[in-house]
From TrEMBL:
<comment type="pathway">
    <text>Quinol/quinone metabolism; menaquinone biosynthesis.</text>
</comment>
<keyword id="KW-0456">Lyase</keyword>
<dbReference type="InterPro" id="IPR022485">
    <property type="entry name" value="SHCHC_synthase_MenH"/>
</dbReference>
<keyword id="KW-0474">Menaquinone biosynthesis</keyword>
<dbReference type="InterPro" id="IPR029058">
    <property type="entry name" value="AB_hydrolase_fold"/>
</dbReference>
<dbReference type="InterPro" id="IPR000073">
    <property type="entry name" value="AB_hydrolase_1"/>
</dbReference>
<dbReference type="Pfam" id="PF00561">
    <property type="entry name" value="Abhydrolase_1"/>
</dbReference>
<feature type="domain" description="AB hydrolase-1">
    <location>
        <begin position="22"/>
        <end position="255"/>
    </location>
</feature>
<dbReference type="GO" id="GO:0070205">
    <property type="term" value="F:2-succinyl-6-hydroxy-2,4-cyclohexadiene-1-carboxylate synthase activity"/>
</dbReference>
<comment type="function">
    <text>Catalyzes a proton abstraction reaction that results in 2,5-elimination of pyruvate from 2-succinyl-5-enolpyruvyl-6-hydroxy-3-cyclohexene-1-carboxylate (SEPHCHC) and the formation of 2-succinyl-6-hydroxy-2,4-cyclohexadiene-1-carboxylate (SHCHC).</text>
</comment>
<protein>
    <recommendedName>
        <fullName>Putative 2-succinyl-6-hydroxy-2,4-cyclohexadiene-1-carboxylate synthase</fullName>
        <ecNumber>4.2.99.20</ecNumber>
    </recommendedName>
</protein>
<comment type="pathway">
    <text>Quinol/quinone metabolism; 1,4-dihydroxy-2-naphthoate biosynthesis; 1,4-dihydroxy-2-naphthoate from chorismate: step 3/7.</text>
</comment>
<comment type="subunit">
    <text>Monomer.</text>
</comment>
<comment type="similarity">
    <text>Belongs to the AB hydrolase superfamily. MenH family.</text>
</comment>
Amino acid sequence: MKLDVNGVSYHVEVINADQQETIVFLHGFTGSTKSWQPVIEGWNDVKIVLIDLIGHGETDCPEEIEHYRMQRQVEDLDALFAQLGLEGLTLIGYSMGGRTALAYACNFPERLKGLVLESASPGLRTDEEQQERQTRDEGLAQRIAAGGITNFVDHWENIPLFNSQKSLSEPVKQAIREERLAQNPIGLANSLKGMGTGAQESYWELLKNLETPVLLVTGQLDGKFRAIAEEMAELLPDAVHKTIEGGHAIHVEKPAEFATIVREYSSLNYQGGKS
């Protein structure tokens, strides 16, 4: 379905709409609602909401960069949740979607029952780090604009972060590539410039105040984000950190294992248990 918020038409899919327990999924950069299909197979007793974030999938890709700011994105999400009548939900985000999910939790914790962050970070701590990353993301955005989507995807799927995906089956690798190739270059470029890691504010200082139960999931081979999750777990009041065999995109590499951990965690929170 299409839902309009703040001048942007968002692509939203609702599965098992009659169920009460609700889990919302936010994909990563170059992803879409299709990213979660292997994870949600057979989930019949939970309402599942899949959203294409701005600049991705079938959601609008406006040219105005203001639409892509992280604060604007989380405000749009809250308006979407209000339109859908969602309360007491579990919000799951991967990488860019994880940063977005955390930003949402810091701004609108009252709507959440639980938060699952897969290979995600609270941003960068210092102005110097943010400026350096902004410069890199601007360069990547220019590469997309100048070289086109195929040139960019050829580069993106070969960065070290995704090395562990090279051992996936050919059909899975092809599905990932096709999802990336289907993206709008304007949307990807603006997403990098508007809500990339360098552009967003840091949420490190807010972690200690976040009362929402948080599940941090990282891959054993993803040393950088495993270390970030360990540090986050020390700061968050109610956090559990799980590692799964695999790299950065665990939901792609180990969808069944990822699904099991998420289901157990969300059900515990929904029933009012303590993680």
